[in-house]
Records
---
Amino acid sequence: MEDKEIVQRILAGETELYAEIVRRYQQNVANLTYKLCGSRLEIEEVTQQVFVELYSSLPRFRFDSKLSSFIYRITVNTVCKMLGKAKRFISADADDNYHPETPSAERNIEQQIIHEEQLDQLRTAIGHLKEEQRTALVLYTFEDFSYNQIAEVMQCSLSKVESLIFRAKKNLAKELKK
């Protein structure tokens, strides 16, 4: 069943179908949240909050975009609210169950340690980026979103997305050189 049909049926009173929306998108929300803020506790809190917000927002969803874009927008907004304006750093000890890259079993211990240190450095460097830059970069690099999709999720212009990603890459390179 397509997302549109599920949403229409939920709005018509078949609220038990909401579990299907959660099942389809829960891992995506958790992965994006991890990449934006890193802490397992925050991932669980944000994921729960996103689906509460989504449920109450479904009547306003007009199908002008994909449901996934709408969910990503809610996720980004929820993360921003929960992080506030305070500078946050991605935790180096965050639960790697939410991270898509894991070292291959074929690597020896030394290579695994080096790989983990590099991932920790990258997480920390990404955590030093400004919130908008971090969001745009994560959506582009780790979620494979196009610039247009990022503009839709972040509710900004295409030129702003281009600028955010350019500045994010430049600032990330500076952070990694430190």
---
Amino acid sequence: MGSKPRSKGQCFREMDKDKTERILLRADAGSSIGFGHYVRTCALGGYLCDEFRCVLVSRNPDLGLPSDYQRTLAAQSGLTIIDVEEKDRDVFDPAFLDLIEPDDIVVLDNYYYDTAYMTEVKKRCRALVCIDDMHDRHFPADMVMTFCPLTREQFSLERDTKFVGGMEWSFLRSPFLAPAKPRHITNKPPQRVALAMGGADPLGLTNKMVRLMREIDAALQIEVLAGQTVKINFKEDERLRIHRQASAQEIADMFDRCDLGIFPASTVCVEAFSRGLPVAAGYFVDNQEEIYAYGVEHEWFMPLGDLTQSEETLKPLLKKVLTTPLSPAPAFDFAARKHDIIELFKSL
């Protein structure tokens, strides 16, 4: 009589059952929803994989399974992916629950897990960690982490929930933890600019920004970081370099050779700060507004405001950024927090 077929998750658990405690990380990604949560979750897994057995689960709403790019990012951080073949969240979410083991630490990174789902996850695991910048619902978690400059009082938490918040608690991939090259800030406007408007860019902001930058300064060198499906209409421009699905090292190298970064107020700004790159930032979704406002107030960013505003309104703000002498970027010691983050997980 034949044995019952085993799922990939079961095979993985049996193969590695003699190793250390398991951390099960969940972060969804795809061309339609972007890769920001996934990238920072991979970075966190890279911190933890020497101390824990870290496995990653990700719903790709476009393909049904993680893409080759997602698998590459996971492998670069030392993570193994458990495949769950499903695009629909209504099916994927309960399937993820079935992967949880009682001794797991589970990490959820996205904005759409409601309190009821987080409660169900917590029932099935030893400890639940939520990475979230929104504070519009109750978190029944053992720990909540955010790189935004938010306080515990702004979140609804359990009395014994651990909380860490602030830019210095960001998770970064190894090239962004390496010492930055000395950067000589001249009394001149930027000549080479890094531009990134998100891995998905459903609003077509990349084209909008390149067009305005060309109108302001035709000689400006522009390096664009974009997802595979982002449409860019300036491919014949010899002063434009396009980087798609770039590795962390390639991004770090790009930031090192640029004078200024133009980004939404998101994880990419943190990566830029790690390389000492001055940043002009704006926002285009709700969860970016708080960090944008705080960053402008504390002079982390040169302000661009709402990136979806009309070109007539945005152009003078962008012109000011591109014609003003640069100031040094804010300094954060991200590497120093790596050990603290590992110790927090060991305490759960």
---
Amino acid sequence: MYKVLVIVGPTAVGKSSFGIECAKAFNGEIISGDSVQIYKGLDIGSAKIKKEEMMGIAHHLIDIKDARETYNVKDFQDLARTVIEDISKRNKLPIIVGGTGLYVKACLYDYRFNDEEKEDDLYEELSNEDIYNILKEKDPLCLSKIHINNRRRLVRALNVLNKTGEKFSANIESQNHELLYDAKIIGLTMDRDKLYERINSRVDMMVNEGLVDEIKGLLEEGISFDDQAMQGIGYKEFRSYFEKGASLDKVLDEIKRNSRRFAKRQYTWFKNQMPVTWFATSELEKALSEVDRWINYKG
């Protein structure tokens, strides 16, 4: 059973830098668990790690998708498991640095998806928006994981609902299988007010680094706010700026508010869904020692 180190926690807490520290200490390579950093060109708004910040550590599942492509939890599961096997066979430690909780859980656990069903013809008279609105009424929770342009997933969710009477979201969340790996999950925390200050400062820094120009360039390349890649926090809020003339200050306030709310949801999700060992960011030496004990445990 391969060992896999996982580093989770809220946005802006410092997961990336700690992941690199662990990779240097334990001969590891990083696997990004982020659902936006997968896309080329979405760099600043996703807080994508810069090459010079990687400190020579290999990073995987970053910049491998075009911004027009869709990407979902099953895609991540398949890609991440392949990378874990490759890293492990080279006698290195796979380190998932995660933001998207469901992605991480689906990778680590025997987390099954129903076989894809070729039943799109049943709904050929329905637009994506029609199917989306049906699901919004009957199973709104599933839409947090399915973009309106991802017709295959929309149809699949509606098939599950119509054929079994079971909500697609319940079908996923009810699974509680065993870990496929010898996984150590480290969670990073910090004082809430300090974290919120870091989030606010990071948003301001993104603007100074050229976030507005980054998004303008994406739009000029034909990327749309309707594309899945642009649904992440830090991008979707700019729709009102470019299409309705909203002020930059208003957009930035919205990004900061959404980021703080997301951080709170991340804490709650990981505490309830996975066996995380938590450390304050002031206790990183203790966290490293915990990882060292796990790696060298002979039991």
---
Amino acid sequence: MKSKKDSGSAKDLAKTELININRKRKWKILGKQKMLILMSLPFVLYIILFRYIPLWGWTMAFQDYKPYKTFSDQTWVGVKWFVQLFTEKEFLLSLRNTVGMSLISTALGYITAILLAVFMNEVRYIGIKRFVQTVSYLPHFLSWVIVTGLVANVLVGDKTGILNSILLGLKIIDEPIQFLAKPNYFWHIIGWTYVWKEVGWNTIVYLGAMTAIDPCLYEAAQIDGCGRLRKIWHITLPGIKPTIIIMMIMSAGHILDVGFEMPYLLQNGLVQDVAEIIDIYVLKYGFKLSRYGLATAAGIFKNAVNILLLLLANSIAKKSGEERLI
């Protein structure tokens, strides 16, 4: 009879052999995919160089940072700048403006993208469908700086402004409106400009999801006497529901990312209280006022909130039994 010691040694040898086999198998798979690994290497290096290494700069949020001092000579202040953020009226205003603009842009972007995707999915004339797709996609490829210039020209506050000319010509208004000088218009201008620029591009995901819906469902609904609206409500929208949920979760991770260019270029003294967002606040305090610690703390706060909201939205979707990212 074999002793327990011999039995244990045999098991250890078998385990070691199995580990060696698995290791060889992994190296064999990696060897077959070496070209894919080499192709992905530049992108991995890009992420490391421009996304992870710069995180070293976050240490400024915990220092009374002075550019002329070395890292070891900096004075550490703990969470002083994070506490001070919430006593700064200007930061609280920028936080409010960021959330307000983001919610308007996100809500309008979702609704319009889904509606346009449903509309294009229902169009039976290929020529019209391609024309609408092309026209709606083109603004996405324009720089935000160019888009901002177009918006500023359209909304000029005198008779030369395109929108004012149209409204005056239709007798809807009696005198030109100073659109860019009215604080209550600013957030909506940002939101609708985002829709105009990105709505066509955002429909791509939903149109792709619609192609995965089984055509037999539409045929069965046709036999049952369902019209187009009932097909949309009971087949199309439920069919793209998982995609809508995933897109909403991803948007939750960008709730404090409004985009820097438009608010910065369109702002003026009359609308500054509603135009300054967190990114502008960081630029102002970091580069103009040289308060590097406070600016870095604001940037960290923005990213931390975005990550927390992403995880929260994913958790809610998971508990609700919906599609999720993680």
